[in-house]
Write a structure and sequence with these properties.
The complex is a heterodimer of chains A (475) and B (93). Chain A has 475 residues and is of the alpha+beta class. Chain A contains 15 helices and 15 strands. Helix content of chain B is 40%, strand content 10%. Classes of the chains: A alpha+beta (475), B mainly alpha (93). Chains A and B meet through strand 2, helix 1, strand 8 and strand 9 of A and helix 1, strand 1, helix 3 and strand 3 of B. The structure holds zinc ion (ZN). Zinc ion (ZN) binds next to loops of chain A.
């Protein structure tokens, strides 16, 4: 039996106004080469200056991953010649990154948590974008110099599935922190994976690295492909060649990327234009206090504090905005189970329909809570509440007004209902007789008639009680 | 200097060396390295590495964007070949 070792290198784009070493705007999707300046274009004589917000967000991630923080962090030049970086080097951190030796606990379900060690967290600048077409390459340097945080794990993951889970939960965590939007399709979160297999107990094998993985699903598939390939080669007595491979998502295979190994020497040296960074106590204290409750802890708390099921808690805590929304609803007096059920069901349906995020939509915790309290109080039916919910999204109005406008208020007034019920019972005397003789199911027929007569607005609980009273009083 | 090391170094520096140049440089670089190696005779056992001599405090910049609108166009104007706002170079893939 072989043992599998998988490590991930994750890059996340930090959300900042400006680039990491110059004041160019940091934005996705701008016209090509509009956010460029002499610094990020590598003109002679310019000096980089470090973006305080990029530093702050980096430390938030380091702390969320329980890293040891280097007393002195040092920026270094990683030298390589490629047109995506006009300076011919990338400013990164190497020997003394911001954070080292951390960990991230992944939740494998059913109470099983696996601790994945983090090798280091370092801040660097992203490269520009290249589009290859025919005999030429098109260059856009808007992305060159935007802040990129790299998180390197130890090879503690044991399968493609674990790697996928890691990525999903890691993405959740960094989105909770608000340091990145984590959009893998747009490249604001990228992942390279390395994998090796070896006989049980013999330690790491020879690894290959897989690149070009722009979804956590592909990471899983590419790794499973590599594990099978390694197993086949090694079982046949062969040796794995240490190399970088590209995931081909059309053919579901990895392909060798021919590289000249001799040029794989980045000759790191300390960046002479940037002083070392020494995080001081006050700064670290302030960053630590700004950290929010992280998804895994919040899920556990929701299960114990609100008695949510594991799947329900997992859904509600999947995004911070949903978890915050949920807790506000509970504060407004909605039962936790009810709040969770509506958020994962009808609210999600409406969001899918409108294509909006919860935050951008017209639905607020206050509005949804008041709507559900109306259901609880028997003022409207659940079906009516669904209609009102849909109307909140389209009309951006208060639920009370929509209930009125749509004429959905339930008739709970006993006198009004009694009148309707007695008319119906009188009109169906044979059915009433049958019920008196034990045909309970026929009550449903009379209920239907009452609903018809009230255009579905009768409070079903009260109506049913009134029907029974009426029939048995007469008998 | 070992010829192989020199060739790798040249490749990393994107220098194309002829055989004569390689032979000549091999000797000259060897002499330079020997000169620099005198530094490793200094005993630094109890010294902290000095990465930067002028530092008094952390130097960071407030995260605000500066929009000097004509600078990107001026930079683009320096590109030998363009298509729309892209800089075009021979394919290097
Ligand atoms: Zn710039």
């Amino acid at each position: 039996m072989y043992q599998t070792f998988i490590g991930l290198e994750i890059h996340i784009h930090l959300i900042t106004n400006s680039k990491v070493f110059c004041s160019c705007r940091n934005e996705f999707g701008a016209e090509p080469n509009t956010n460029i300046c002499p610094v990020c274009m590598g003109y002679p004589g310019v000096l980089p200056s470090l973006n305080a917000e990029a530093v702050r967000k980096s430390y938030q991630v380091c702390m969320a991953l329980d890293c040891t923080l280097n007393e002195t962090a040092i920026f270094e030049r990683k030298n390589y010649f490629y047109p995506d970086m006009p300076k011919n080097y990338q400013i990164s951190q190497f020997a003394f990154p911001f954070g080292i030796n951390g960990f991230f606990d992944i939740d494998l379900g059913g109470g099983t948590v696996k601790r994945i060690r983090i090798h280091d967290v370092h801040l660097e600048e992203d490269a520009g974008k290249m589009i290859h077409s025919g005999g030429v390459s098109f260059l856009d340097y808007n992305r060159a110099g935007t802040p990129l945080l790299e998180i390197v794990t130890e090879p503690d993951l044991a399968s493609g599935e674990e790697a996928e889970i890691f990525l999903q939960q890691f993405r959740q965590m960094v989105r909770y922190l608000g340091v990145t939007d984590g959009n893998m399709e747009e490249g604001s979160m990228r992942c390279d994976a390395n994998v090796s297999i070896n006989e049980q107990g013999k330690g790491l094998g020879i690894k290959t690295e897989v690149k070009n993985l722009n979804s956590s699903r592909f990471v899983n598939k590419a790794l499973e492909y590599e594990i099978k390939r390694h197993t086949k080669v090694i079982s046949a007595g062969g040796t794995i060649i240490q190399e970088t491979r590209l995931w081909d998502e059309d053919r579901n295979v990895t392909r060798s990327m021919r590289t000249k190994e001799s040029s794989n020497d980045y000759r790191y040296f300390p960046e002479p234009d940037l002083p070392p960074y020494l995080p001081d106590k006050d700064f670290l204290q302030e960053v630590r206090e700004s950290l929010v409750e992280l998804p895994l802890a919040r899920k556990g708390r929701f299960m114990s504090e609100y008695a949510l099921s594991e799947s329900s808690a997992a859904f509600v805590t999947g995004e911070k905005e949903i978890a915050d929304f949920f807790e506000k609803m509970v504060q407004h007096g909605v039962a936790p189970q009810t709040a969770a059920r509506w958020l994962s069901g009808d609210v999600q349906k409406q969001l899918n329909l409108s294509g909006e995020s919860l935050k951008a939509s017209a639905l607020t915790p206050e509005r949804l809570s008041r709507l559900l309290v109306m259901v609880e109080d028997g003022k409207i039916s659940r079906d009516a509440a669904k209609k009102v919910l849909a109307a909140i999204f389209t009309e951006n109005e208060e639920p009370e007004k929509l209930v009125k406008d749509l004429g959905l208020e339930q008739v709970s007034n006993k006198e009004d209902l009694e009148k309707v019920v007695s008319e119906i019972v009188n009109a169906h005397e044979k059915v009433a007789e049958a019920i008196r003789n034990g045909a309970d199911k026929q009550i449903g027929f009379l209920m239907g008639q009452v609903m018809k007569a009230t255009a579905g607005k009768a409070n079903p609980k009260i109506a049913q009680q009134l029907i029974k009273n009426n029939i048995f009083k007469q008998g | 200097m070992d010829v192989m090391d020199l060739k790798i170094t040249a490749e990393l520096a994107k220098l194309a060396l002829t055989e004569e140049e390689t032979a000549k440089l091999s000797e000259e670089v060897a002499r330079m390295l020997e000169y620099f190696s005198s530094m490793s005779e200094v005993d630094v056992t109890h010294l902290e590495p000095t990465n930067y001599v002028l530092q008094k405090e952390n130097r960071t910049r407030i995260d605000s964007e500066k929009n000097e609108s004509d600078i990107p166009d001026k930079i683009l104007g320096n590109a030998p070949r363009r298509e729309d706002r892209f800089i075009v170079i021979p394919n290097v893939l």
